[in-house]
Amino acid sequence: MSNCLIAQSGGPTSVINASLSGVIDSAIESPNIHTVYGAINGIQGVLNHNIINLTSIFAPSKSKLEVLKTTPSMFLGSCRYKLPDFTEDETEYKLIFDIFERKKIEYFFYIGGNDSMDTVLKLSKYAKIKNKNVKIIGIPKTIDNDLFGTDHTPGFGSAAKFVATTMLEISYDTYIYDIPSVTIVEIMGRNAGWLTASAALARNEYNSSPDLIYLPEVPFSIYDFLSNLKRIQKTKKNIIVAVSEGIKDKDGNYISASENALDDSFGHAKLSGTGKTLEHIVSKSLGCKVRSIELNVLQRSAMHSASLQDINEACEVGNKAVEYAVDGYTGQMVSIIRTSHNPYKYQIDCVDIEKVANKEKLIPTEWIHAENGDITNELIEYISPLTFGQPNIQYKNGLPVYLDIRHLISNN
Fold it and tell me: At the top level of its lineage, which domain of life is listed (predicted)?
C-alpha cells in the first residue's frame, strides 16, 4: 500500500485545518493509503525533510480531528516559497520526488491559495514529464476569494463574517459620540475586493454603515472620495468607510505602496497602510475627527467568528481530494460549484490546475458602483449564505480549546 503527504501553504484562514481534517479522515479510512504524513511549513518542509506522521497522531483518537476542524490557522505551519522553473533548475524537484519515493508517497495534497496552486502546477508538470507515479491535488483556501475555477474559496466565508461583525461593532462604537467623524476601516485584499465588499453585510434596518466601499477592481480617485465624504456629511455626522488595502489610482499605482519596499518572492508589492494614508488626506481636507482601523491579521484566523457553512465545505473539499486522488486524478484543484443561489446549494467538483494557477478572480465590475463608492445587491447576496451558522467550539476557563501546536513552536 502507498502513503500520502499533506502540506499547507500561504496565509492562514479559520478553516484551512478543517480541510486538513477532511484529508486526514478520508485518508486514514481509505484502504489504498497506509500512512498519512504531514510536511511542516509547506513545500519547504518537504525539501527540509521536516515530516511528521499524522496517522499516529489522529488514528488512535478521532476526537482530535473534531478539535482540528475548529482550530484556526495552520496545524502544519506554512511557507511562501516559489519553486523555480524546473526547465532551468530541477534540483529541488529531484529532492522532492526523492522524498516521495523514500516515503512511498503516491498522493500529495497541497492546501493553499494562488501561489500554492503554482506549486501544484509545477509539481504536476514535472511528475508527468518524468513519469512519476504521484497524484498531486490542490485544495483551495484563501480569505481573498480570488481563485479561479471555484465559486468561492474555503476561508472566505468565515473571514467575511468576521469583517461584517467587526464593521457592525465599529458602528456601535462610532455612533455614541456627538462629534463629526470619519472612520476608515482597512480590509485585506490586494487586487480582489471580495472581503472588503463583505463589510456591507453589516447593514441592517438601523445601520447604513459602511457608508462608502472602495475596492481594487476599479481606479480610486482621491477627488471623488473626498466629494462623496462631503456629500454624506450633509446628512450624517459619523461616516464609516470600508477600503481594500490594494486600491489603486487610474495609473495602477497602489495608494499605499511603499517606495522603498521590495516585492515578495512571488512578485507581490508590499503595501503599507492604505487606511493611514487616507486618514491623513481626510484630516487635512475635512478638518474633522478621523480614525483609521487596520484589521490586519485578525481577519484571517478568527475562529470565534467562523462560519459553520465554511467549516463544513472546507472539510468536504478535503474529503473529496482524497477520493479524486485515489481514483487516479492528478494536476487538479478541488472546487465548489454553486448550483442554486436561493436557496443556496452547491456540489464539489475539480478543475484542471492549468486553469487556476497564476490567475486572479476579481469582482465583476457590474457588481460595483464605483462612482458613489458602493456595491450592488447581487454581490451582497452572493456573499451572504457563505457566512451562515455557528460552529460548536469547546471552551475551557473561558477560552476556546484549540489543538496543541508545540511541534510548530519548537521550530521557532
Answer: Bacteria
